[in-house]
Design brief:
- By secondary structure, the protein is of the alpha+beta class.
- Helices cover 27% and strands 12% of the residues.
- The protein contains 7 helices and 11 strands.
- The chain has a 5-stranded mixed beta sheet. A 4-stranded antiparallel beta sheet has the order 3-4-5-6, with no helix packed on it. The chain has a two-stranded antiparallel ribbon with strand order 1-2.
- Strand 7 and strand 8 form a beta hairpin.
């Protein structure tokens, strides 16, 4: 069950054509039941409909009506939300396959309990979209959302799945998906699988974060938003975007694990995560590159301690907790990334933090 942005990409098959002839036309009630259409010259749509043989298409002088030999449907199986209707198996199965669960648009209920029902104890585990499909939608219960406006000012809303392909021309979505795929296969799999399966929503939007950088902002629901508009900036080349997006995704991971909030503790783990993903990324390309400055220390004693501890963490050496404490305690005075004092007002750690998430989600 997900709280996500309603956009125009929530695909519903409205018509099936054979040349200029409409052989299936569909309108839907709010919860997905197909509305019988009083179409001239055709048998009205009834539901469910079992299609066991090819539909014979006859000529039709009216392209807006349905030509049928006894049924107003085609062999198309995909209807409400673009999900496959199971009525092709039997007319007695009027269900839609949403992947994790089957949905009955006649009763507006799932046929199985929500696998994350314990997080929604006040809601029926069989309810669809909290009973409000106008505001919410539930594509598969396991998503990272990418939200943008494309080059033609169309609203785009994508649910990320590992190694997905996107070739629809929007430059922001294309780059973000490419970088997410790179992060996933270069050590970020465990962390991203956690985000994908979490009940809390992490959205990636085409807006510039604070200081013209990538930025994660958590919300009260336990999810949050990554402002990633900088991916289109010329100052953010590919390597920097992979590392920065990895860093903000780890902040999202901290948030959904109940450890969200600005602190040096969280920043160190996010910096190490991004650094290691980038290292794996370049190794997979077999390219020569300059190491990320995320682990660089200032030219003082604190800087030397921070840099050595950070590199120990990034290299996966033993004594993780000891090295982590050294990196955290020397971060404000020793880390090059805090040269401008960006993190000076951050607390060292917050009360809700303390679990070493990087030990569990270390980029392998």
């Amino acid at each position: 069950m997900k709280y996500i942005i309603l956009t125009f990409t929530h695909g519903r098959v409205r018509a099936v054509l054979d040349g200029d002839t409409v052989i299936e036309a569909n309108d839907y009630y709010t919860f997905g039941k197909r509305i019988p259409l009083p179409v001239s010259g055709a048998v009205p749509v009834t539901e469910p409909v079992e299609v066991t043989a090819p539909v014979e298409v006859t000529s039709n002088p009216n392209p807006h009506s349905v030509a049928s030999t006894g049924s107003a449907t085609s062999q198309n199986r995909w209807h409400f939300s673009g999900k496959e209707s199971q009525s092709f198996l039997s007319a007695a199965i009027p269900l839609l396959d949403f992947g994790a669960r089957m949905y009955d648009p006649l009763t507006a209920r799932w046929t199985a309990q929500d696998p994350l029902a314990e997080k929604y104890y006040a809601v029926s585990p069989y309810a669809y979209c909290l009973g409000n499909p106008i505001v919410y939608l539930d594509p598969n219960g396991k998503t990272i959302t990418i939200f943008t406006i494309d080059d033609q000012n169309n609203i785009i809303h994508l649910n990320y799945e590992p190694n997905m392909q996107y070739n629809n021309g929007d430059s922001f979505a294309t780059k973000i998906i490419d970088y997410l795929n790179s992060i996933y296969i270069n050590g970020g799999k465990d962390a991203m699988d956690c985000l994908i399966s979490a009940s809390e929503q992490i959205s990636i939007v085409n807006e510039i974060g604070k200081g013209n950088n990538y930025q994660f902002v958590g919300n009260k629901q336990g999810g949050g938003t990554i402002y990633a508009g900088s991916v289109l900036s010329q100052s953010y080349e590919q390597s920097l975007s992979v590392e920065s997006l990895s860093h903000e995704l780890f902040h999202g991971l901290q948030q959904v694990n109940g450890q969200g909030g600005a602190s040096i503790f969280n920043e160190v783990e996010a910096y190490v995560f991004g650094y290691k993903v980038l290292d794996n990324y370049h190794s997979s390309l077999d390219t020569i590159y300059q190491n990320s400055p995320s682990g660089d220390g200032n030219s003082n004693i604190e800087g030397q301690k921070y840099q050595q501890a950070f590199l120990n963490l990034a290299n996966g050496k033993d004594n993780y907790k000891e090295n982590f404490k050294i990196a955290v305690s020397n971060f404000k005075k020793g880390a090059r990334v805090n040269l401008t004092g960006l993190y000076d007002k951050f607390p060292i750690i917050k009360q809700n933090q303390g679990k070493y998430l990087l030990m569990k989600y270390y980029p392998k």
